[in-house]
Amino acid sequence: MSCSDDRTVRIWDLPADKSLGKFEGHQDYVRCGAYMGSGSAAAGTIMSGSYDQTVRLWDARVGSKAVMVFKHDSAVEAVMPLGGGTAVVSAAGNAVNVLDVVAGRVSAVLRNHQKTVTCLSVAGGGSRVLSGGLDGHVKVFETTGWNVVAGMKYSSPVLSLCVVPSVKEQEDKHIAVGLQSGVLTIKTRLSGQAKVQAREREKEMKALIEGKIDEFDRERRKKKRGKGWDRATRGKEYTGDGADLVIENGSRKVLSDKNPWGKALRAGAYADALDMVLEEKVRFASILR
User: Fold this and answer.
1) Are the beta carbons of 66 and 25 closer than 8 angstroms?
2) What is the pLDDT of residues 212-227, one digit of tens each?
3) Closest among 47, 8, 49, 7 to 29, alpha carbons compared
4) For the whole prediction, is pTM greater than 0.70?
5) What b/e readout covers 28-57, taking b as 16+ CB neighbours within 10 angstroms?
6) Where are the domains of the chain?
7) 159 in Cβ contact with 119 (< 8 Å)
8) Euclidean distance between the first and final Cα of the chain, in Å?
9) Which of 49-53, 132-136, 283-287 has the lowest mean pLDDT?
10) CATH topology of domain 2-189
């Protein structure tokens, strides 16, 4: 499917290299279009947006004329069907419009940009819609109440954006944004342990710049010890207030069997052992005299 400045929308057979059909009805350049979601009642139908300020729904089964037309206040820059094929999001002027295909009406108008919205993308399996505008902002909307839940600011007007899905991890991690300055920027969303580590590196760098790296290291060691560390080590570093004398436990001497009183002690004859020691001391004193 192609949308053209000749005000037409065409369907092409790629192997045959020829056009299979042409839809006419737009009154100005047709700058955007998309197939509606597969597996839905609208499967095979086409949505297109034009500078004639309309979004049109085409169905080849009923002819070359539009089966539904949504009028906007400004030129339409982007259209994007949402999952299920019952809703379409369009960008016209500084507004993002939510179109209800079943009811045939505009169900919500989001005016969160200050300048023209140029591009749209879907994320989170259809639970989030992203919009980029000439004001350099990317807005993230949740699709339940259509509230802004996040945003990013760029240094140049945003011309295109795309959220790269991650099928294995079931989480969108990359967003590619094309800027008017000629720069393509790709941001990666960290999750889990990688996010925690990145946050810790930022805090460490900030502490280093502010000259508080020693305090930061103490706090980090304290967190690693756990909540029970202080309770387990309480009082172990106390040495007393102005203590001059420290008494340490001496090592116990092993009784020697060479002394007769030692043998008596081992045998439990405590009285005999005491008599032997006293006799030995008396004999030693008489020698000294």
Assistant:
1) yes
2) 888 878 777 776 665 5
3) 7
4) no
5) eebbbbbebbeeeebeebbbbbbbbbbbbb
6) 2-189, 190-225
7) yes
8) 127
9) 283-287
10) Methylamine Dehydrogenase; Chain H (2.130.10)
